[in-house]
Structure formats: structure tokens, C-alpha cells
Amino acid sequence: MVWIWSPEYFPAKADLVEISGDIASVRIKDDFSGTSAGALLTGFTSVYFTFDNHDGQYFYPSTQPDFRLVRDYTAVNIDVLIERSKIGGTEPFRIWQIKENNPNNMLEIATYVPYEAIITRLSTIGSSMVNTGRWLLVLAGGLILFGRAMQIRNKRRFSRL
């Protein structure tokens, strides 16, 4: 857990580039299977966007803030920040900031999730996972010691019989 959620995992804002354009398609996919089959399991899904004027897929995972807003209300035209180093690859681009440009969106305010909010949310999730991992490690160590003590006690007990 410590290696997965280390601070180096998050790109610096200077390493990001802005892509803007009209949304060509939106698809909600399960992160495990890559299909829409498990799209209702919010904890394991991402919203995938394609643009009219840019190649590739861009995804916004459910672990990032305001996922429901992005999933249900984002439309027409958006500006996103993606990692510059990932351009030219075959993997989908992770969205590190999203800003909607939709003057006709009257149901909800325009979607805007800043880079800082995403990093804060992912850092919080990461630190809670690391802390949980530490507690589980302590618990596992305690259970091992308890099991070893019971093994020694039972060995002495049955050796007298």
C-alpha cells in the first residue's frame, strides 16, 4: 500500500497539459473488466470521454471528487488536464482537472474539479489506506504471537499426559 500511494504517484501541475474540445462520447466502464457490465458499482468505475478533435480516451475514476457530477451532468465541451508524458501512448489519459464549458446546462452548475481538490482527495485516500495497512500489520503480528503462545502452551500441556 505504501508503494502504490506514495506522493510521487501524483504528477506535478507543471507536468500536465490542457486539452479542450467537444465531447464525442461518454461511456461508464467497470475498472476491472473494462466493460459497462459493472458500471453501477460506483467504487470501481470510471467515466471515459472521447473528443471530436483529439485522439484517445480520457478517463475520470470514481476515486476522485465529484464523480457523480462528472458522470451524470458533464456534457458538450470540457477542458481537462492530462499528463504530458502519456501523450503518444496507447493507454487512456487520466484526467487531473476538469472544467465544463456548457452555457446550456441549467440543471446543475458547470462541472469544475480543480487539480488541487483531486490531489487532496487521493492523498487522503492514500494516507487512510497506509494507516489501515499499518493497523492490519500490527493485528497480524499480534495474532501470530498469540498463535505461537497457544502452540507452546498446548505442547507443554499435552507433553505431561
Counted by DSSP, the helix tally is: 2
What is the 3D form? elongated
Question: Helicity range of the residues?
Answer: 25-40%
Structural class given helices, strands, pairing? Answer: alpha+beta
CATH architecture of one domain: Beta Barrel
Number of strands: 7
Residue fraction in strands: 25-35%
The main pleated sheet reads as:
7 strands, mixed
Quick check: average pLDDT?
A: 83
Distance between the termini: 47 Å
Gyration radius, in Å: 23 Å
Question: Secondary-structure blueprint of this entry?
Answer:
Layout: E1 16-30, E2 45-51, E3 58-61, H1 67-73, E4 77-83, E5 93-94, E6 97-100, E7 112-113, H2 115-159
Parallel strand pairs: 3-5
Antiparallel strand pairs: 1-2, 1-4, 2-3, 4-6, 6-7
